[in-house]
Amino acid sequence: METIFSKIIEGTIPSNKVFENERILAFHDIEPAAPVHVLIIPKKPIPTMNDVTEEDLPLIAEIHQVAQKLAAELGIAESGYRLINNCGPDSGQAVYHLHYHLLGGAKLGALTGISASHS
After folding, report:
1. What CATH number is attached to the domain comprising 63?
2. Which is catalytic among the residues 28, 37, 97, 99?
3. Which of 16, 34, 55, 85 has its CA 20 to 30 A from that of 109?
4. In the chain, which residues have pLDDT < 50?
């Protein structure tokens, strides 16, 4: 199933990449919900977290390592950040290609948004 992320992986849709290797791609979100908002995706087309298999676990671990590396490089590791995966329609998942949101750079609200003091 083709998604906007598969088109970004193919290079038919441009992105502002911050990391890429043969398995993972990370790029700035075009509608950021925080001063730092990066999407981290596997190049393997996995629709949701529910579709992750035991075979995929090393890839998931690598995604988390990439998130740690990017948090440090983007200056949010010390102050704190969120790594969010939405799974399914009730979570708000809009693109059915597994992805993580790396959010930081401001004091984040209690759930998933930015606090009212952030403008």
Report:
1. 3.30.428.10
2. 99
3. 16
4. 112-119
